Structures are given as structure tokens and as C-alpha cells.
Amino acid sequence: MSCCSSVDVYVSNPHGEDTENVSGCFCSGLTGGKLTRKITPKTAPPKEKKKIVVPSPYMFMHVDEHVRKIKEPEHASSPEAESAVKPVQHTSTPVDVTKNVKSLVAYLTGPCKSDIEKVRAFYYWICNNIGYDRTYQYPKRESPNDPNTVIRHGVSSTSEGYANLFSALCRSSSIPVKKLKGYVKDGRYDPEEPFTQLDEPEHAWNAVYVGHDWRFVDCAWGAGFEDDEGIYHRRYEEFWFMTDPENFINDHFPYLRNDPMSSEMWQLLKRPVTLEEYNKTVKVEAVTKDWGVEFSHREPIIVFRKELHIIVKTTIVPIMQITATLDTSDKVNMDAYVATFRDSEDHYKILVRPPSPGVYILKLAGKREGDTTPRVPGLVKYILKCTDINNMVKNFPFSYTAAQTFQVCVLEPTYRDLEPNSPVKFRIASPFLGEVFVEDLILEKVDDYTWEGEILTPKKSGQFLVVYGVSQDTSDHRKRQPVYKFNIL
What we know:
With 489 residues, the protein is an alpha+beta fold.
């Protein structure tokens, strides 16, 4: 009998030393082929960063376009889940392409010339075609985590369904792959209830071996996310493809029960972190890592007295604006007691001054330069515990976007509410303004960066005082922009 096909089977080597591959033949009914037993590559940190291996997602443009041609899988869903599970609309191709793993792999790998292109095709297709619905009901005889079941229905009710499907596609292409389970900081994560080794690992993802390195892939998170309210949002995320281990460990902690050594190895870090260290690190969003945003406070729960200063630094992508929102633990808005100042081009300062002791939720969001979309991506969320306050806490002045653009800082007054018909001294600092006004009254420039002057507030309560600035690049007063607003009590 001649060998008519070839199958590679990867097996783990428990001792870790290199072993020669073994080849032979197999028989199955009237067919047969060549069988190669290969040793799974050693677990080790990748030698190169993602930005070297994947400098731009556009390198996969031909693969992504090929993937988008597949007709969406046929599946029935409940009316309640329809918005969450409906796949992206694609142009028509033969229906049997999404019949099972074998037919799907045959189509997806058509234009691929390397393993990394195949892995990209698998990730891109899963993220754009498999919806998520934890309440989805499969027929009784079908396993919800079976790859072929997930393909046929176009829905997964667990992250394990995504991971199993990705594993099956890789194995069908003889690409080494590992399914991992562990703890994740998702929308339901509460830093006040840290993970313990008694908790059941509930999330699954993959490590895949391409380009002589193990790389992380999370198809479930690449397809969408659950917000703080538990509502699922369908949105493709590039970040979770080939993610660097130092970014992945922020919210993914592999835990293989009864095998702590393997759990550490599959962090793919030179210095693995402990579960305690993982719990004590604040969860940051994918865009935060992608943009290289760093925070002075790395713990998720911050205990402080009277006043809190958080420094934000940008290292990769320039950010033109950071917004801060403050709420009590029962969701009462306290934005008047948080202020954001831009100290320099890449440094921001967040100042929190709560009106009373208690627990607060601080959320920071940011917008990078040149972004004209209305959405402001979230960066990080902290739990603040204030144990003591100043006797006379006052609201911060309301700030406009231009205040950060021109790095404007209010030196006086530092509170929002002003008495009517009263003289108030204003001191404003900025390295980028040419002139500063309080309404129509111009302030005097006292040094290179500072303006000051005494203003008589309006006589009537309920009015406002607005501070305006004119850029150094223009002398046209009509182009002045609002930077801060004060209330007249």
C-alpha cells in the first residue's frame, strides 16, 4: 500500500530534552498515509516582540480579504441573543466551506504561504464569525465546546468553545498549539475578591507555535467583550493576536491545577509572577498597553487621606486628552471632585479630592492625537478608599478639552463656585497660550507661562465665568477657546 496522505502528530516530552521525530505509515479502512510523530516544541519566552514579528496588521491584508469572502454560518438564535451572536456579513462562497473543521481549514489556508498566515486566518475568521452567548441552547446531542458544533451554529457559549476551535484548526494544519485555562480580569472581575487557587479557572485561550516561538492568542476576547453590566459587545480586537507575554499577564493568569510548574512555564515570562502579584496589579485595557500608557499607581485599590495624585505617562502613542470620572460605590456622580492637568506633552496629573470619606470608583479614558471619532476608549479603573478629608473641600473648576490641548493649569482659584459681586484673583499658566481672557477681560502676562488679574464676579447668582485662551500661533481674538468655567453661587 502506498502512502497517500501525511499526518503530523505532536506529543509532549515530559523530560524536556530534544528527541528525534519518528515517521511511519498508518491504515484506516481502504486509505492510508504517512504518520510523523513530532515532539512539541519547548515552552519558552518568545525571542522577539510582537511589533517585530507583526509590524502591522496590513501585512495580512490578502489573508483577511480571503477570509471575509466566506459566507456566514447558518445558525438559529434566540431573539434576545440575536444582537450578540450575529456574525459579520460576508459575500457568498460555497456553503460547505463552513461545514466542519476540515473543510474550513482547506478554504482558509488557500492563500497562506506560512504558518503565521494560517494562524492569522484562523484567528480572523473565528473572531469575525463566532458570536458569544452564555445562555445559548444547543441540541442535546451536541457538545457546546465541540469545534464542529461551534462552526455549525456560529455561536459559542464559553471561551473554551473558541479555544477548542482554534486548537482544532491549528492541529488540522500540523501547527503546534496548546489550550490554556486560568483566571482573567474580565468585566466581572472584582479586585476586592482576589483569585485563590481554590477558584475554578473559567477562561480558556491558546498558545500557538509559529516562527520558532510560542505566542498567545485569545479568540474569545478578540471577538468582543462584556462590560461592567455584563452586556456583551461584539467588536473585533487586533490586540489579542500574538500578544506579548508581558502584556498578556496583566489580565490572563494560567492555572493548570496540580501542576504549578507548568502554570508558571505557560506565562512565557523570564520571571513568572505569583498569583498574589497578579491580584495586586491593576487591570488596564488593551488600548492602554497598545499605546504604552503607564500609571504611577499599579495597584487596583488605592487607600489615601484627603487628596490623591495619579501621574499618567504616555510612551508610544501621543495622547491629546485624558478624561477622568469619579463615582461613589453606589454610582453617584462626583466628577466635580476630580481634575485632570496636562503637565507636559507626555505627562498628565489626575487630582482627586473627595467631599467625604468613603469608597469611590475612578475611571480614566483617553484619546490619541488625530483621532476624530466620538468614542473615548477606557484606559484603567481604580477603586479608591478615602479615609480622611480636608475640612473645606470644594469642587474643581470645570475644564474644557482645550485645557489639556494647551496644557493650561488654574493656579487660582482652584475651586468651581465663586461668590457673586466679589473680587477674585485669577492666575493661569500655560506654555502654549499667547493671551488669556476671563470673559472679555484680558489677564496680564507676568512671565513666560503665567497670566494673572483681579476680576469682579457678576452680581447675579446662577451665571458663569469662562476663561478663554488664544494660541500663540494666532493673534485673532475670535479664535479664542474656552479652557475653564466657574459657577456664580
